[in-house]
Write a structure and sequence with these properties.
single chain, alpha+beta, 8-stranded mixed beta sheet, 3-stranded antiparallel beta sheet, 6 helices, 27% helix
Length: 250
């Protein structure tokens, strides 16, 4: 079978705590994740149908088309995916809420004519996805929806330049020791509003107020409000009395 070696950007996600939820819940969250990935890749300008996808059971590995800008897999893709899943979680019951570990790497892989992909970069991607730093980031902050670990190589090519929507200061260097892989990687926990946020300590939720919108003005006084902004999809806030309000894009 003929194979070609190509440089590809690699992305993988894994649903946290998927086991023990039952087949019905797992089927539902897999559908939600697939739809959110499709929409987020599309928004990032990456053709979902041209991606080579591998189902991981409770996650997915995606090999982007050749020539895909690595920066697009961080912003808007990662932040769009985070915002979409946060919006889903606001309305979902506990069995169908989704939190994700995510990993990004890039390198030269063998691509078969049937769409199979192999090579050392895929092994590195798998180790990053399972690494302790990204697991710990979500365990230490139960309100975080996603946590991302990017390889040293991906950080150099896609993060260091500080392109719009990507802030180098929002990534923290960590050590990774997983099976045969040992090296440095960079951890990023998207903010509660879906954009870049510095990692290393829990965000201060009381020191500064979010920008006010028409939806904020209409919110009844005396209620606790949690805001989640999904790119291009308006503002969603949940009041302490259980009322859910969805405001259109301002």
């Amino acid at each position: 079978m003929e194979e070609v070696r190509e440089y590809r950007a690699l992305f993988a996600v894994d649903i946290v705590g998927s086991s023990g939820r039952g087949d019905v819940a797992l089927h539902q969250i897999r559908q939600v994740l697939s739809a959110a990935l499709h929409a987020s890749f599309t928004r990032g300008g990456v053709d979902w149908d041209d991606c080579l996808r591998h189902d991981l059971g409770d996650g997915m590995r995606v090999v982007a088309p050749a020539g895909t800008p690595e920066t697009s897999l961080i912003h808007p893709l990662v932040h769009e995916l985070t915002a979409r899943l946060r919006g889903h979680n606001l309305l979902a019951g506990k069995p169908t809420r989704i939190r994700l570990r995510m990993a990004l790497h890039a390198g030269s892989v063998q691509v078969g004519r049937d769409g199979t992909v192999s090579g050392r970069p895929l092994e590195v991607l798998a180790r990053l996805l399972d690494a302790e730093p990204v697991r710990a980031a979500l365990a230490q902050d139960p309100e975080a929806t996603t946590a991302l670990l990017v390889s040293e190589h991906f950080h150099e090519t896609a993060v260091c330049e500080g392109r719009p929507g990507i802030e180098p200061a929002a990534f923290r260097r960590v050590d990774v020791r997983e099976k045969e892989f040992a090296g440095s990687a960079w951890l990023h926990v998207p903010s509660y509003g879906g954009g870049p946020q510095a990692t290393g300590s829990a965000p201060d939720r009381t020191s500064s107020a979010p920008d006010r919108t028409a939806s904020d003005v209409d919110a009844p006084a005396g209620n606790t409000k949690v805001i989640s902004k999904a790119s291009g999809h308006g503002v969603i806030y949940a009041l302490g009395n259980g009322t859910m309000n969805i405001g259109g894009k301002q």
